[in-house]
Specification:
GO molecular function: metal ion binding; prenyltransferase activity
Family: Belongs to the FPP/GGPP synthase family.
Distance between the termini: 45 Å
Radius of gyration: 21 Å
Number of strands: 2
Bound molecules: geranylgeranyl diphosphate
Order of helices and strands: HHHHHHEEHHHHHHHHHHH
Keywords: Isoprene biosynthesis, Magnesium, Membrane, Metal-binding, Mitochondrion, Transferase, Transmembrane, Transmembrane helix
GO biological process, one term: isoprenoid biosynthetic process
CATH superfamily: Farnesyl Diphosphate Synthase
CATH architecture: Orthogonal Bundle
Strand order of the largest sheet: 1-2
Subcellular location: Mitochondrion
Length: about 300
C-alpha cells in the first residue's frame, strides 16, 4: 500500500511499484539458474540485492502498465479490455524482466568492450570474473530473455524486442566511428542514442501496450513516450559523465571523452566554440587533448 503523498511532497515513482520491484529481483535470480553454477553466479551478479542499479526501465514499464490497464469506457465497450487480470499484469511484469535481462547483458558486453573496472559501485563482472565469463554471461542472459519472450506467445512482441537487441548492437557500432563528419553531427548522435538507449525503452513500452490489447495508435503513443524518455535519459547520462564523480556514478567519470566518444555536451560546446572542432578531430588518445577540450565545457 502506498500512502497518498502530501501535496507539497514530490511523488516517488519508484514507491508506487516498490512491491513489484522487489519481486522482480527475486524473479530475475530464479530465471538465470544455469546448469553450470559458475554461469549462474556470473549471470545473477547484478541481480543481487544492493547492486540492481536504478531499475529505471522496469519502473517505467510497470507504471506504463498501470496507466494502460485502466479501463476506459470506449475500450471496454469494444471488448478489448476483457482480460484485465492478474494474468495480464504478470505478462507485463515479464516484459520488465526481459528488458532488464537485455539491459544487463548489454552492460556486461559494454564493460568488456570498454575494459571498464567498475559498474553499479562494485567491480564490473569482467574485472571480477574475467572477460570470457562476462561475455558468456551476457550471451546466457540474452538466451534466457528469448525463452521468456517466447513464453508470451505474441509474435509482434517477440519481433519488437528481438529487433531492439539488434538496435543496441547498431548503436554501439555507430559509437565506434572515427569519421570526422559523424563525430561532429547532432543528427548522428541522436540516431546513435536512439539505437543505443531509447530503442529498448520505447519498444518495451510498446510491448506493454500490445499485451494489454491496445490499438496500434495507443501502442505508438506508448512507443513515442518511451523514445523521448530514453533520449532524455541518455542526454542526462551524458551530462553526468562530465559532472558526476565515481562515487555518484558507480563507475568512472569522463569515460566518454576518454574513449573518444563525442556526446551532446561536447556537440553543444562545439556550436559555441568553433575552434573545438579541430580539438575533437585530433581525437582523445592524448590525455593532454582531453584537458584542452574540458576547458570549453
Ligand atoms: C549484448 C544486448 C547486447 C548488446 C551488445 C555492448 C552493446 C551491444 C550495447 C551497449 C549499449 C549500452 C551500454 C547503452 C548504454 C545504455 C545506458 C544508458 C546504460 C546505463 O543505464 P542505467 O543508468 O544503468 O539505467 P543501471 O546500472 O542503473 O541499470
Amino acid at each position: 500500500k502506498v500512502e497518498k503523498p502530501h501535496p507539497k511532497e514530490p511523488l516517488d515513482p519508484f514507491a508506487l511499484v516498490a512491491d513489484e520491484l522487489s519481486m522482480l529481483a527475486d524473479r530475475l535470480r530464479s530465471m538465470v539458474v544455469a546448469e553450470v553454477p559458475k554461469l549462474s553466479s556470473a549471470a545473477e551478479y547484478f541481480f543481487k540485492v544492493g547492486v540492481e542499479g536504478k531499475r529505471f526501465r522496469p519502473t517505467v514499464l510497470l507504471l506504463m502498465a498501470s496507466a494502460l490497464n485502466m479501463p476506459i469506457p470506449e475500450a471496454a465497450a469494444s471488448g478489448a479490455y476483457n482480460n484485465f487480470s492478474k494474468d495480464l499484469r504478470a505478462r507485463q511484469q515479464c516484459i520488465a524482466e526481459i528488458t532488464e535481462m537485455i539491459h544487463v547483458a548489454s552492460l556486461l558486453h559494454d564493460d568488456v568492450l570498454d575494459d571498464a573496472n567498475t559498474r553499479r559501485g562494485i567491480g564490473s563482472l569482467n574485472f571480477v570474473m574475467g572477460n570470457k565469463l562476462a561475455v558468456l554471461a551476457g550471451d546466457f542472459l540474452l538466451s534466457r530473455a528469448c525463452v521468456a519472450l517466447a513464453s508470451l506467445k505474441n509474435t509482434e512482441v517477440v519481433s519488437l524486442l528481438a529487433t531492439t537487441v539488434e538496435h543496441l548492437v547498431t548503436g554501439e557500432t555507430m559509437q565506434m566511428t572515427t569519421k570526422s563528419e559523424q563525430r561532429r553531427s547532432m543528427d548522428y548522435y541522436l540516431q546513435k542514442t536512439y539505437y543505443k538507449t531509447a530503442s529498448l525503452i520505447s519498444s518495451s513500452c510498446k510491448a506493454i501496450a500490445l499485451l494489454a490489447g491496445h490499438t496500434a495508435e495507443v501502442s505508438k503513443l506508448a512507443y513515442d513516450y518511451g523514445r523521448n524518455l530514453g533520449l532524455a535519459f541518455q542526454l542526462v547520462d551524458d551530462i553526468l559523465d562530465f559532472t558526476g564523480t565515481s562515487a555518484s556514478l558507480g563507475k568512472g567519470s569522463l569515460s566518454d571523452i576518454r574513449h573518444g566518444i563525442v556526446t551532446a555536451p561536447m556537440l553543444f560546446a562545439m556550436e559555441e566554440f568553433p575552434e573545438l572542432h579541430e580539438v575533437v578531430d585530433r581525437g582523445f588518445d592524448d590525455p593532454a587533448n582531453v584537458d584542452v577540450a574540458l576547458e570549453y565545457l
